[in-house]
Automatic annotation (TrEMBL):
<comment type="similarity">
    <text>Belongs to the glutaminase PdxT/SNO family.</text>
</comment>
<keyword id="KW-0315">Glutamine amidotransferase</keyword>
<feature type="active site" description="Nucleophile">
    <location>
        <position position="79"/>
    </location>
</feature>
<keyword id="KW-0663">Pyridoxal phosphate</keyword>
<dbReference type="GO" id="GO:0008614">
    <property type="term" value="P:pyridoxine metabolic process"/>
</dbReference>
<dbReference type="InterPro" id="IPR021196">
    <property type="entry name" value="PdxT/SNO_CS"/>
</dbReference>
<feature type="active site" description="Charge relay system">
    <location>
        <position position="175"/>
    </location>
</feature>
<dbReference type="GO" id="GO:0042823">
    <property type="term" value="P:pyridoxal phosphate biosynthetic process"/>
</dbReference>
<feature type="binding site">
    <location>
        <begin position="136"/>
        <end position="137"/>
    </location>
    <ligand>
        <name>L-glutamine</name>
    </ligand>
</feature>
<comment type="function">
    <text>Catalyzes the hydrolysis of glutamine to glutamate and ammonia as part of the biosynthesis of pyridoxal 5'-phosphate. The resulting ammonia molecule is channeled to the active site of PdxS.</text>
</comment>
<dbReference type="GO" id="GO:1903600">
    <property type="term" value="C:glutaminase complex"/>
</dbReference>
<dbReference type="Pfam" id="PF01174">
    <property type="entry name" value="SNO"/>
</dbReference>
<dbReference type="InterPro" id="IPR029062">
    <property type="entry name" value="Class_I_gatase-like"/>
</dbReference>
<dbReference type="GO" id="GO:0006543">
    <property type="term" value="P:L-glutamine catabolic process"/>
</dbReference>
<comment type="subunit">
    <text>In the presence of PdxS, forms a dodecamer of heterodimers. Only shows activity in the heterodimer.</text>
</comment>
<keyword id="KW-0456">Lyase</keyword>
<dbReference type="GO" id="GO:0004359">
    <property type="term" value="F:glutaminase activity"/>
</dbReference>
Length: 193
């Protein structure tokens, strides 16, 4: 069976482990390069992207994760995880870097702070019914390059979910609203890889 890792440096790791487990996947927490070598796919959780970035460099994980992405490992990032997958961050703080891979530009905290968090119903490419999406200090995808493809947009057209090959990113948190279809899609990528 496929073994999927959740990068467990900071953020809502537990919620992802639960959704993946409910879908029948074997999960592992990933903090070290050697743990990365034992998984078939990786989830980058929500949290604080600048902190996850800093810790990933402190733990010697940045280059191994970049190498895994370049080698085609399926990776799904939610919120902070989407920021970490983006090739370009419009407003990085503190010399913040990303792993990259998704040909998109993101803007962190695009909707404002915690009090501007909101939930909404979203139509998603390939899903029969809308997704209940929770946006928590969420980023926006402000530019989609030619290699990436938008999967979902707000009613005003602003992009909040993207896919590119084996990479998947959502500005919102399906793992906190009982929505498992993105994780199921990610597991399909893992099984096919
Ligand atoms: N604002 C956070 C960041 O910039 C993301 C918030 C989240 O993951 N819910 O990383």
């Amino acid at each position: 069976t496929a073994r999927v890792g959740v990068l467990a440096l900071q953020g809502d790791v537990r919620e992802h482990v639960r959704v993946l487990g409910d879908l029948g996947a074997e999960t592992a927490l990933v903090r070290r390069p050697e743990e990365l070598a034992r998984i078939d796919g990786l989830v980058l959780p929500g949290g604080e992207s600048s902190v996850i970035d800093k810790l990933s460099r402190a733990f010697g994980m940045q280059q191994p994760i970049r190498d895994a992405i370049a080698a085609g490992m399926p990776v799904y990032g939610t919120c902070a995880g989407l920021i970490l997958l983006a090739d370009r961050i419009e407003n990085p703080i503190d010399g913040q870097e990303s792993f990259g891979g998704l040909d998109v530009t993101v803007r962190r905290n695009a909707f404002g702070g915690q009090v501007e968090s909101f939930e909404t119903e979203l139509a998603v490419d390939g899903f029969a019914t809308p997704v209940h999406a929770a946006f928590i200090r969420a980023p926006l995808v402000t530019a989609v390059g030619p290699r990436a493809q938008p999967l979902a947009s707000l009613p005003d057209g602003r992009v909040v979910a993207v896919a590119q090959g084996n990479l998947l990113g959502t500005a919102f948190h399906p793992e906190v609203s009982g929505e498992s279809r993105f994780h199921a899609r990610f597991l399909d990528l893992v099984r096919a890889a």
